[in-house]
Amino acid sequence: MKKIFATIVLALAAVVFVGCQSQSQQSTTTSGSDSEKAINVITSTDVYSDIVSEITQGTSANVTPIISGSSADPHHFEPTANDAKKITNADLIVENGLGYDSWFEKLVKSTDTKAQKISIATDIGQLKDGDNEHIWYDVSLMKKFVETTTQKLIEIDSANQATYEKNAQAYLKKFDTLTAKIDDVKSHLSDANKKVNVSEPVADYLLQQIGFEINNKHFEQAIAEETDPSAQDIAQMQKDFESKTVSFFCLQYPKSQPIS
């Protein structure tokens, strides 16, 4: 079961971060015509710039994340005047929402940008304050994000409609492959192996879509709120492992800590 789950997580990473190896802090597609007016897309983090870049490849669109790489924590990021300038000149802006990148919303309001905006959690996911902010692990929501972004790009840059649609369809097929893997794992789960413990609620959307049940919600909530879990919660988790109540433990490594 652990091996299968690892395969699912890696597959999702391959879909969501497929463009990250070749993307710099400013991701620019340069295959379009020199006479073509380049549109500017600004995203709060490179998770979403990588996805958008998959749709815009072959055009002159500039896709730029404000936060690139793992050096900055989106929860505590402080944007600069240069970041505000990027927002002002944007044609499309994309944020996660739910407080994950609250600074982005404040940054947008500080400018006179005329850009179209996508707040993925609320505009597409219809989520509300208090819901899990780690929405990039929600496969179905990311598919909807690709579809919504494609339509927004076409509204802004109709001359490249065929390219956007072709790229989006190719990218969505990768999600279909991932969904098939998820369904396969889900079909092999039984009530005896559905429960899992997690270090924090990062991959909960994915785990639940596979069919797993989060067993230690009180513990993960404490971590998410940056408070110490109770001794009772810790003791219960130890009992879970000793009695093999849970199938595995999903650990989120800190961004600054390499996996060795």
Q: Record the strand order, biggest sheet.
A: 1-3-2-4-5
End-to-end separation = 22 Å
State which percent range the strand residues make up. 5-15%
| SS content category | alpha/beta
Low-confidence stretches: 17-26, 256-260
Number of DSSP E strands? 8
Walkthrough of the structure:
α6 packs antiparallel against α7 (161-187). β2 (40-45), α2 (46-56) and β3 (62-67) form a beta-alpha-beta unit. Mean pLDDT is 87; it is low at 17-26 and 256-260. The chain is an alpha/beta fold. The protein has helices at 2-16, 46-56, 81-88, 102-109, 120-124, 139-156, 161-187, 204-210, 217-224, 231-242, and strands at 27-28, 40-45, 62-67, 92-95, 116-119, 195-198, 213-214, 249-250. It is flat.
Topology:
Blueprint: H1 2-16, E1 27-28, E2 40-45, H2 46-56, E3 62-67, H3 81-88, E4 92-95, H4 102-109, E5 116-119, H5 120-124, H6 139-156, H7 161-187, E6 195-198, H8 204-210, E7 213-214, H9 217-224, H10 231-242, E8 249-250
Parallel strand pairs: 2-3, 2-4, 4-5, 6-7, 6-8
Antiparallel strand pairs: 1-3
Helix pairs in contact: 1-7, 2-6, 6-7
What descriptors fit this protein?
disordered C terminus, alpha/beta, 260 residues, flat
Summarize the structure.
With 260 residues, the protein is an alpha/beta fold. Helix content is 46%, strand content 12%. Helix 1 packs antiparallel against helix 7 (161-187), helix 2 (46-56) crosses helix 6 and helix 6 (139-156) packs antiparallel against helix 7 (161-187).
